[in-house]
User: Which sequence fits this backbone?
């Protein structure tokens, strides 16, 4: 086996050692422990007896550990670790490339295309990945697919052929060969070691239930409260314990529900720092995308320690971070939906915006009949439907209707998009070129549609009043200057200040 990855890509070795010995869940996914005597790599929270330090190597990613020849632990299950958010968020080149890999970019395209999308040479991109993550992009892609397959084999009763499809493999033969080479056992053999699968749904009449891990602390109540205040009737149902919505297409409608994983520990004595995702009718080919959207929507890969360390240097934010250490950045299910809702919500109350958007969804969305929670009746309208649909009589002003059509048309012709590899500046520049879209809306979209951690609507009146402690109000320029010290986590400062102010942000854009 090769030597461990460069310590520069890891937390300090002494920190790793203390976190491993204490099984500190705050470090879950930030590094992995590989045991040379067994050939197994684990999460820091693994409940197995701690190996001797001289037998341990630390790796910055699961892909790095697998590239060195180690296999994932069947007890602590590395596939449940949250991603290392520092490498998957923001505008850093590796982060933008990882977002594309997470969406399956390398499944059908060569590495050269990925490098071109992030404006680097292929060799330079590979070097950056090895420096940061300890593995090349193709290795990261392969590990991601196999670990997702491992989760499905462990937690569900999906047929192996459907697991292969869900993990992005073109054939069962290729999947079996890749799995056997990496993990030294066939997929069916792994399932024999997975007691969870016997109790899980197969997707045929029963829901698929998946565990989505996060690093504590996590304030699910605050997340649901934010989403409940903006829940779109017919499309979403949110109560104090769950978020549910219609997903899929008119030909294959489905629905999902997200809530807390049952308290306590699982059967392997691993702390259950996770959300519970129920999937009803989601086809195998859409499982990876669905899980990725939910992870982004509920901000499950954030690193609260890194965020707090950066923001707590500001005295205004210190008490907010202490009060709500588990507050996360709530995103939305679909970029187009968030854009439409943001435009409709400009300069009106949240309640009024919900009413107007619900009318639009009822008229132009596709009606569905689901056996889910009461109130799930429609898919949100497609881009094509709103580009061509009649928006008269819904209560929208002429300007708002024009902007909604302009957004739909611009998405169809490619002038704007929600590509995850765009930098924040590029994204904002493209969107503010549209009529009716100002800097506030562009940065709000970056927050809610992309989950961008550094988006910052400096024009927001609530923020301008919330930051000073003397009752004054900052200008947008003054606020932006103050927030420079909050990079690259300015969006988290926004959420803390909005939450503290308890004033809905959707209605606060002022047009120049």
Assistant:
């Amino acid at each position: 086996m090769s030597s461990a990855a460069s310590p520069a890509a890891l937390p300090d070795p002494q920190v790793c050692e203390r976190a491993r010995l204490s099984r500190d869940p705050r470090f879950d996914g930030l590094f992995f422990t590989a045991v040379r005597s067994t050939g197994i790599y684990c999460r820091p929270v693994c409940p197995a007896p701690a190996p001797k330090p001289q037998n341990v190597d630390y790796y910055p990613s699961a892909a790095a550990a697998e590239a060195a020849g180690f296999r994932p632990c069947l007890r602590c299950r590395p596939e449940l670790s949250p991603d290392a958010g520092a490498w998957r968020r923001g505008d850093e080149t590796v982060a933008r490339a990882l977002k594309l890999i997470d969406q399956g970019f390398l499944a059908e395209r060569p590495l050269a295309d990925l490098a071109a999308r992030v404006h680097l040479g292929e060799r330079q991109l590979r070097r950056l990945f090895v420096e940061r993550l300890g593995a090349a992009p193709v290795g990261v892609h392969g590990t991601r697919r196999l670990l997702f397959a491992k989760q499905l084999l462990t937690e569900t009763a999906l047929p192996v052929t459907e697991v292969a499809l869900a993990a992005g493999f073109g054939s069962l033969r290729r999947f079996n060969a890749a799995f056997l080479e990496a993990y030294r056992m066939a997929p069916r053999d792994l399932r024999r070691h997975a007691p969870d699968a016997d109790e899980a749904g197969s997707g045929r009449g029963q829901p698929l239930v998946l565990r989505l891990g996060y690093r504590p602390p996590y304030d699910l109540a605050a997340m649901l409260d934010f989403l409940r205040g903006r829940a779109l009737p017919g499309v979403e149902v949110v109560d104090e314990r769950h978020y549910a919505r219609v997903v899929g297409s008119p030909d294959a409608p489905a629905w999902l529900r997200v809530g807390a994983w049952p308290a306590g520990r699982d059967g392997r004595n691993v702390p259950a720092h996770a959300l519970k995702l129920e999937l009803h009718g989601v086809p195998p080919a859409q499982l990876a995308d669905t899980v990725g959207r939910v992870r982004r929507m509920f901000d499950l890969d954030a690193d609260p320690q890194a965020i707090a360390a950066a923001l707590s240097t500001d005295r205004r934010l210190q008490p907010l971070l202490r009060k709500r250490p588990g507050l996360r950045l709530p995103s939305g299910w679909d970029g187009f939906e968030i854009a439409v809702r943001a435009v409709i919500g400009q300069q009106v109350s949240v309640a009024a915006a919900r009413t107007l958007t619900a009318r639009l969804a009822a008229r132009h969305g596709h009606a569905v009949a689901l056996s889910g929670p009461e109130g799930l009746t429609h898919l949100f309208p497609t881009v094509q439907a709103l580009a061509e649909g009649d928006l008269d009589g819904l209560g929208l002003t002429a300007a708002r209707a024009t902007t909604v059509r302009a957004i739909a048309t611009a998405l169809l012709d490619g002038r704007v998009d929600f590509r995850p590899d765009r930098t924040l500046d590029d994204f904002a520049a493209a969107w503010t070129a549209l009529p009716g879209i100002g800097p506030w809306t562009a940065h709000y979209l970056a927050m809610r549609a992309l989950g961008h951690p550094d988006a910052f609507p400096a024009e927001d009146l609530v923020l301008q009043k919330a930051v000073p402690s003397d009752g004054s109000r900052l200008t947008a320029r003054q606020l932006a200057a103050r927030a420079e010290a909050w990079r690259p986590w300015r969006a988290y400062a926004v959420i803390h200040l909005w939450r503290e102010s308890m004033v809905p942000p959707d209605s606060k854009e002022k047009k120049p």
Notes: The CA atoms of residues 123 and 463 lie 43 Å apart.
